[in-house]
Design goal:
This protein has helices at about 35-50, 65-85, 100-110, 135-150; strands spanning about 5-15, 20-25, 55, 85-90, 115-120, 130-135, 155-165, 180. The protein is an alpha/beta fold. The strands form two sheets. Strands 3-2-4-5-6 form a five-stranded parallel β-sheet, sandwiched between helices. A three-stranded antiparallel β-sheet has the order 7-1-8, with no helix packed on it. The protein starts with a strand and ends with a strand.
Length: about 180
């Protein structure tokens, strides 16, 4: 009395290669015009969201009473957020104190993150290992194009799995389908 193989179940499978789904928006927050600090983040957030890319905005992540007492906690939370992001987009095109932003760039590089900087830093020797673009528009265009190109690397195929009846458990629910979805 053997098991009987019935027709097949078909699963659409998708293998996605490295993609850009989350961007950390770094740039001066302290000692700068608050409206200007928020305006570029809002605009870039909307543009990236339309492309299916989420953003973490450290300028809006907290309501802080005494920043000096909360500084180490804020930096720790930002570091966790940065670690979950695929890319760190840095806006250094506005005038203002960028001390915290410079620290974010270094942390991102230590994490092995891709860092894209908008600002006229081409002549700075310290920018040798960063992607630097003259302005934010160009930096965002490069980021979106790269995200679209990576999406094209998604492989789609159909996987055929035989349906086996007569087993004492649900055979198909115990299969490791890894990124597959039932199409029938």
């Amino acid at each position: 009395m053997g098991d009987k193989t019935e027709p097949f179940m078909y699963f659409d499978c998708h293998e996605t290669h490295d993609t850009i789904t989350m961007v950390y928006l770094a740039g001066p927050i302290d000692a700068v015009d608050k409206q200007a600090s928020m305006k570029w983040r809002d605009l870039i957030g909307k543009i990236l969201n339309k492309e299916g890319i989420s953003c973490f905005d450290p300028a809006r992540a907290y309501k802080v009473g005494n920043a000096k007492n909360a500084a180490s906690r804020i930096m720790s939370i930002n570091e966790v957020a940065m670690n979950t992001c695929d890319v760190v987009l840095v806006n250094l095109s506005n005038v203002g104190s960028a001390f915290g932003t410079i620290r974010e760039i270094e942390k991102a590089k230590m994490m092995g993150k891709r860092v894209i900087v908008a600002g006229n830093l081409e002549s700075h020797l310290a920018a040798y290992d960063l992607e630097v673009y003259i302005n934010l528009d160009i930096a965002v265009q490069v980021l979106i194009k790269d995200a679209q190109d990576l999406c094209k690397l998604t492989t789609t195929y159909t996987r055929e799995i035989p349906i086996v009846t007569g087993l004492p458990f649900n055979y198909t629910s115990s299969l490791n389908m890894g990124g597959c979805r039932n199409s029938h």
